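Worked example 3. Consider a protein that binds heme C.
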Amino acid sequence: MPARARLKKILLAIGLLSALAPPLLLAQNQKRCREIVDTSCDTCHYKTRICQVLGSRGRWGWKRTIKRMVRYGARISEQDRETLLDCLVKASAGEPFACSYTTPEK
Ligand code: HEC
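Given these inputs, the predicted complex is written out as structure tokens:
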């Protein structure tokens, strides 16, 4: 294959990868966030409590919410807090990781 054509293919592959990576990463994160919510946030109250306010709070608001839950006694690692915070901030209303108990997203 001539060098130009090979370069074109490589560029195409890079383009495809960078277009696909963010949604894939997001899906991966959501899976993790479901686990975090199910283990750390679905004990004192149902996660529907979280579902109800999804999409209506910014990073600052969610950070305060998580801090308050930790003060109440929620057990969640620093790293999980960050991961969950990210999911909560990006989530729109009804996002399954915090709203559904049945359909696990891939
Ligand atoms: C130790 C018990 C406990 C755990 C664990 C817990 N919560 Fe809560 N949560 C509460 C209590 C009590 C309330 C009601 C009082 C309040 O809102 O401050 C509440 C209310 C809420 C609300 C509704 C009030 C609001 O701010 O809109 C949300 C959202 C919430 N929790 C999110 C979470 C998240 C996210 C987690 C996991 C990190 C979590 N909770 C884990 C005790 C807990």
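Take a moment to read the result before moving on. The mean pLDDT is 91. The two ends are 38 Å apart (CA to CA).
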